[in-house]
Amino acid sequence: MATGELTQIRLVHSSDSGLDQTALRAVSNMPRWYPAHREGMAVSCLYELPITFRFD
Q1: In angstroms, rounded to a whole number, what is the distance separating the alpha carbons of residues 56 and 50?
Q2: How many CB atoms lie within 10 A of CB 23?
Q3: Rounded CA gap, 1 and 15, in Å?
């Protein structure tokens, strides 16, 4: 049963090793998500989360 825990976290596109590590750490420290549901049952799903860094 899916629990909303994030697993298999990985980068799709790399921009800089320091930023990569920051993005991975930020996602790894997120609270559990609400799991996807299919036919009333919690299921695992693949989700791509875009992360944008802005520098002033």
Answers
A1: 20
A2: 19
A3: 34
Distance from C-alpha of 27 to C-alpha of 6, rounded to nearest angstrom: 8
CA-nearest of 30, 23, 25 to 4 is: 30
Written in H, E and C, the secondary structure of 1-56 is CCCCCCCCCCCCCCCCHHHHHHHHHHHHCCCCCCCEEECCEEECCCCCCCCCCCCC
pTM (two decimals): 0.76
Question: With 70 as the cut, is the pLDDT of residue 1 above it?
Answer: no
Contact 51, 26 (CB under 8 A): yes
